[in-house]
Each structure stands twice: as structure tokens, then as C-alpha cells.
Write a structure and sequence with these properties.
Elements (H helix, E strand, L loop, with lengths): L8 H14 L6 H9 L3 E4 L2 E4 L1 H13 L2 E6 L2 E6 L11
Antiparallel strand pairs: 1-2, 3-4
């Protein structure tokens, strides 16, 4: 059996911040500044929103750690791939 995928600390921080923004939560100020500086998020009406670059980065990071994003009615849903799900979980 191979080792599960692992992200670096920087990648973990970035992914956590992007997921927070995706879920309409405000990331920690220091992380929001990093995401904004990297072009991954922007402020609209004093709220963080993912940019196209942010969506692409989130999908890349999720793929690296074995997760897949699914879209339902134009809204992304985060789900584990079938290989990552518990054997007793049916979907």
C-alpha cells in the first residue's frame, strides 16, 4: 500500500484559507493578506472572494492530496474521491 498524499505546510495553509473563503468565512488576517498578495482572492464589498486563479489553485491542491471537487448547480462541493472514502460509506 502506498503512502497517502501529503501537502507541504505552505500548501496546507493556502488550501485551508481558500476553503475558508469558498465557505464564505474570513481567513485569518495574515493568511488573507498572503492569499490576496498571491492573486488567489480579492475583496468585494469587504468580503473575500476566490479569483479564477484561486479556484484553479484550490483544485490543484485538492487533487494533490487525493480530493476532487464536484459542482452542483454551479456551486463547488468538496468531496473525497472514492479511493479516499471509508469502505462502509456508500454514496
Amino acid at each position: 500500500m502506498s503512502k497517502p498524499p501529503k501537502l507541504s505546510n505552505v500548501q496546507n495553509e493556502r488550501m485551508g484559507g481558500l476553503i475558508a473563503v469558498l465557505c464564505h468565512r474570513e481567513p485569518y488576517p495574515w493568511l488573507g493578506d498572503k492569499l490576496k498578495g498571491g492573486g488567489f482572492v480579492e475583496l468585494k464589498n469587504e468580503k473575500y472572494c476566490l479569483t479564477d486563479k484561486g479556484y484553479k489553485e484550490l483544485e490543484r491542491l485538492m487533487t494533490l492530496c487525493g480530493l476532487a471537487m464536484f459542482y452542483r448547480n454551479g456551486v463547488p462541493e468538496i468531496q473525497a474521491t472514492s479511493a479516499q472514502r471509508s469502505p462502509d460509506v456508500t454514496g
